[in-house]
Amino acid sequence: MKYLLLFLLLPALATAQEQKEVEPVVSDDYLRLLPKHAADSLLYPRPRPVIYEHYWGNQIRSVTVGARMVLVSPFLPRQLSLGGTYRTEMSLQTINQLPALQQAFVQGRSLDGRLTWQGPETGELFSYGPALSSLEFDGTRYRYDQQGKLVPAGTGNGQPAIAYNNNIFRTAVRFNQSLRLHSTVRRYDQEQWYFLLDLSHTANQIVIQDNSNLSKSLSASAKRSFSWGSLTGAYQYLGEKYANPNRNGFLNRVYQQSLLTPVSFDNSQGNYTFTGTLRSYSDKADNPHFLLEENNNRFNRTQQNASLTLDKFKNPLKFKLIPSFEKIQERSIEYYPPGAAGFPTGRSTRRDKDDINYSLRSQLLYNFKGNNQWVAPAAEVNYNYTSALTTIHYTHPDLTYQYQRSAHDLSAGFSIIHRENRHIDERLDIGNRFYFSNTSHQQQYFLPYIQTGVTFKDLFHYPHDLTIKIDAGLHHFNSELPVHQSFSYAQLFRHHPVQFNRYFPVQEAKEFDGLAPVQHQEWTGKIAVDYHQLLILRASFVLRNTQRDIFPVYERDQLLLKNIAQHQHRGLDLQLGITKNMVGDLWMSHNLSLYTYRDQVQQVENGYAYTPLAGFSNVYKALVPGQPMGVIIGNTYARDAQNNILIDETGFPMVNDAPAIIGNPTPDFILKLDNTIYFENWSLHATWEWKKGGDIWNGTQAALDYYGRSAVTAAERNTTGYIFPGVLEDGQPNNIPVSFYNPARPVTQNRWTRYGISGVAADYIQRADHLRLNDISLSHRFNWQRTGRQLTISAFLRNVMLWTAYEGVDPNQLLFDQPNSTGLDFFNLPAAKTYGLSFSFQF
Q1: In which order are the strands placed within the sheet that holds 69-75?
Q2: What is the pLDDT of residue 23?
Q3: Burial 388-421 (b: 16+ CB within 10 A, else e)
């Protein structure tokens, strides 16, 4: 049978295997339709078979006839895709909370045994005068008030005294819009070009009157892809303008003067009297409107950055090179007009700051050939060169500071993944870093690191079922303070709070040279558990030992940087994420994070214990050996050996002015909760924050108490017969009754003024615990499936609610916006609540 089949198929097989040269089939009619040169080329026979090169599924773009070949080129057009996002946001801002002020008692003090109104012409600063309800206007032509002077009720024109509102805050408007455009050019279904353009513009009033900020930015990049890699060029521009810079605490001073203005004086009636003199409630104080309206303050900042990224890869080698250049210019004028309290002839300076930075980052990666168990072993070398030049110039006084640093950071390492099976991967990274610079007098060439981890995937043998990842590492690295960092804020360390109106920083650090680099030894541990992306648990721990840390100190009237401290940081971060389908299209997502840390000062160089980190000369955060970083230092009540408060012969507690630890601003923990509900194209989002523990010095309350402007002084100033707990100097229990404010005695001897503007600092340490609803938003998304366009509309509230044990406005606000100042409050600007709408259109 098989022979019969072979016999039947033999003619067909013989025909199929016949080999002969392809002969052109050309007719006269066909030749007449072709161009002459093409017809001529087809008349020549080919000595060898014609080879056709073609691509299935594409149109033919051209046919090239060669001596031995006919090349058929496919028609593969370049594809251009365009897309982008336009976003606009409009919002209103209002003040969230202000200190409780008294509205019952006027400017003045006790004179000759009775409470007396003291007008602005007397220079009076205190609000310990008579009750507002006991006074009326006399109707005379008075340069400080259009209604006249205040006199006892029944002796004037019968018009009762007015409780003026000296609030300087307003409802502010913010408008932001941004446009993002991206384009891709593809050929052979591969990306050839990629273009990106980002534009944004923000006009922002702030809640303090006569203040507005403006910012605009541009970012553009272009990427060209080749078979061997890619080349990317990028440029960024950022421009910012502020009406009033706050480097010298100018806005805090305006805020302070608005709060301290007595209820009987109206700041809004003008900055000048009808006689042409300055109009304020005291010649030792300022009218906040005068400071805001009649100044030459301004701040402009521009930042430009250009970079080029070269990515070259040719297995097994990859190379990356990124040179970049950055230029930052800051131009600010800081000004107090003549007549300002503390500066009777005025005070101004122009501060010009220029930063020029160049960096060259490079990476060389070599991938060794792996096998089934040893996956992707690789050797990596990174070299970073940075050059930074900063120049700061003040005009008054004429001072110029210039800092320059060239630094080299080289690291070499080896990494490998070992795969036991498809469920277990083990990873190891080892290497060493080298760091040296021209500003460091000690170079270090041995900074090893090791990072290891193991990943367990799909433990229940179901794809993407359960994954556990464990990592641990030890890193040694050095660091230096950036030369562009300003330490002018350290001049506040030399001012007492009562001298706040003299604070005008015009001094920078002398130099950055000759310092040892800060040494860090860091242990890290991480574990991550992922179940179906529905349950995610992450935990990370860090233990970092820091030696020779650098801080600013004053010596011989110079601001110097010194290596003075050794400290240890321990931090724990826990995160839990849950996503659950409730029913149908209703989904809920919850993310809970818990963060806690401790930063303990282990050692401080001789002579530098209690070095201030932020604050004033008498109340500040400091470096204290054996204590948490930045404990609060201040005066306390004097105590005996049994810790009883000592009482003087007048019945009031005595003061111990020796610096002592009075508080610790470090919280016990910070708990954050992020919740989102999704239903079809709707989403509702809210974030909460609970900060437990930590202390804060309420210097704002101390100053308001001192000047008699706080609600507490109004409620308690008539207290009599009070006996402070404590003992007399002879050890006997205190039995001397006192009046908090006795008109028969000078005003400076009452309950609040006798201890000065900052009071007994320990008496104003308060808990900073708070629960905050950070933001809440409701969004709806409109989709156009055929076009790919999408519109999202959102309504949002930010900084919505605050529940706190702190009696001030907000425990998170910073002292004059200075770094490391958490835990100190001296007329810190209040936080603002934001209401807004945003529109985002994706096309």
Answers
A1: 51-53, 69-75, 59-65
A2: 52
A3: bbbebebeeeeeebebebebebbbebebbbebee
Residue ranges of E strands in 66-146: 69-75, 79-95, 108-111, 114-117, 135-137
Beta bridge partners of 694: none
Tokens of 85: 């996002």
Residues 725-749 pLDDT 10s: 999 999 999 999 999 999 999 999 9
3-class state of residue 6 by DSSP: helix
Contact 328, 300 (CB under 8 A): no
CA distances from 319 to 25, 310, 313 (A): 54, 8, 6
pLDDT tens across 551-565, in order? 999 998 999 999 999
Q: Yes or no: say if 324 and 355 are a contact pair by the CB < 8 Å rule.
A: no
Q: CA–CA separation, 239 vs 564, rounded Å?
A: 38
Diameter over CA atoms, the chain: 142
363's enclosing H/E stretch is strand 347-367
Q: What is the pLDDT of residue 54?
A: 41
From 6-20, 170-184, 417-431, 702-716, the region with the lowest mean pLDDT? 6-20
Q: Are strands 611-615 and 669-679 parallel, antiparallel or unpaired?
A: unpaired
Mean pLDDT over each residue of the chain, to the nearest integer? 90
SS3 sequence of 229-280: EEEEEEEEEEEEEECCCCCCCHHHHHHHHHHHCCCCCCHHHCCECCCCCECC
Domain layout of the chain by residue ranges: 23-76, 108-152
Instruction: Return the ∠ at Cα 813 (arms to 808 and 814), rounded to 5°.
Output: 120
pLDDT (0 to 100) of residue 46: 42
Both tokens assigned to 795: 């309504």
DSSP string for residues in 630-670: TEEEEEEE-B-TT-PBEE-TTSSBPEEEEEEEEE----SEE
Q: Report whether pLDDT(6) > 50.
A: no
* Cα separation, 132 vs 104, whole angstroms: 5
| pLDDT classification of 145: cutoffs 50, 70, 90 | very high
Distance CA(78)–CA(196), nearest Å, equals: 18
3-state DSSP of 30-76 = HHHHCCHHHHHHHHCCCCCCCEEECCCCCEEEEEEECCCEEEEEEEC
Predicted TM-score (pTM) of the model is 0.88
